[in-house]
Amino acid sequence: MDPVRRPRGRPRKPVLLEPAALSPRRGLHDQAVERLRALIVVGTLPAGSALVETELSAALGISRTPLREALKLLAVEGLVELRPNRSPLVAELRPDAVTELFEAIAAIERAAAELAALRITPAELDRLRRLQAEMEAHHAAGALAPYFALNQQIHALIVACARNAPLREAHEALHARAEIARRRALDSRARWDESVAEHRAILEALYARDAAGAGRLLADHVGHTGTALIAGLARHAA
Amino acid sequence: MDPVRRPRGRPRKPVLLEPAALSPRRGLHDQAVERLRALIVVGTLPAGSALVETELSAALGISRTPLREALKLLAVEGLVELRPNRSPLVAELRPDAVTELFEAIAAIERAAAELAALRITPAELDRLRRLQAEMEAHHAAGALAPYFALNQQIHALIVACARNAPLREAHEALHARAEIARRRALDSRARWDESVAEHRAILEALYARDAAGAGRLLADHVGHTGTALIAGLARHAA
DNA sequence: TTGGCATGAATTGCATGCAGAGCACCAAAA
DNA sequence: TTTTGGTGCTCTGCATGCAATTCATGCCAA
């Protein structure tokens, strides 16, 4: 028998970059997914750049194994492009891909809005109304960043109210790429005003439990957002 | 002594001009995804069973590393349920999950049909017509298995004709779970006849490039299939 | 008996080693 | 000069080893 009890704590090695501090007990691969997604969305890892496993794992303070798992999951999300025996690339977001992306989001949100109109509870309607009011306040104040956050919450809440897990997961999977597009082209005051008005109409349709109307309005809203973004991207490129 | 260093892995079989398209030589993790998916769909790995990494990796003849990557991907597809620090489980398919699943598939296929009605080429329409004829022949002959295969091909082709990668990927992701439900409840002659008729109507709407009609018909068709399957599952459980 | 805690086996999660694929660079031939 | 073949290096893909976690068992006390 070993008289010396080994110390229970794992030998922590010094972590160079940000050590994923104080996160809930999830695995490193899961944290890596989130951190990498954030880095890609905000552009710290620019589109087209190679993701060399040894470099990235060192930068994240983890080993290659969980990193590889994370890269595979990000590839499913379309944020990363895997190549056999080659370094993965941060996926490029081409204009036609943005078109398809917003077509798909519109399709999913339309269906979600139709279901939500049938299934949403009064409490959820109330929460939507409060979010809408808050969002309009940010709009009035010209606060873009919080506006976007609220806007995103509202869309997510409507999808959640559809009570359909596959639809919600598909929606979440597309969200990061849409966010990339939004960040690249967040301009046009006119579109902003229009968007707020469209949100009002959607909310009213949900209150009226008008499934077809809510679906159509939301799909159109997403479609308009998409075309506006593509226009913005085109301006950006020029 | 052995002067010739032998490779540690499997002996490479001599490959003579094997078309890479048919044998893409992908990584072990990718192959593991397909093999596990097939094993789960046909029920060799029954719902609720624990997937112990060491056992599974030995059974598949691979190590735990690619197996773990495969399990993570199957979890995204909803075929496997991951639990922190516990063995993954083959996901159970509860009746309400089947309902949601077919709601989601109907939503995606409706959107796909609407887009396909606008974008489908004459050649694709022709191919659809031939597939439909072949499927009807199997129906007339009472050949269930090839009928199902053709049926799937038709649905996949319609989605492909929408020219929308995210929609197609979402559709594919849901396919395996739907297949599980189908295999559990493939009965009801009456529903079979009805389904063939519905396919005819969908095809006609596509020919007429009636986007709304094609979308509605296809969504209803998938919805009917879902309710029939749930009824079948209920019979099965009883 | 029963509740609580320690202990050990089983298994996951992560790190790391190693072989091979792919690429760059260079030399030699055309 | 262009092309072809070789050579070395880098990086991926996979296997394996080790620590940490979880669960089951058993012991002790109430």
Automatic annotation (TrEMBL), chains A, B:
Residues 26-93 form the HTH gntR-type domain. Keywords: DNA-binding, Transcription, Transcription regulation. It comes from the Bacteria. SMART domains: FCD, HTH_GNTR. PANTHER family: TRANSCRIPTIONAL REGULATOR, GNTR FAMILY (PTHR43537), TRANSCRIPTIONAL REGULATORY PROTEIN (PTHR43537:SF50). This is Transcriptional regulator. It comes from Methylobacterium indicum.
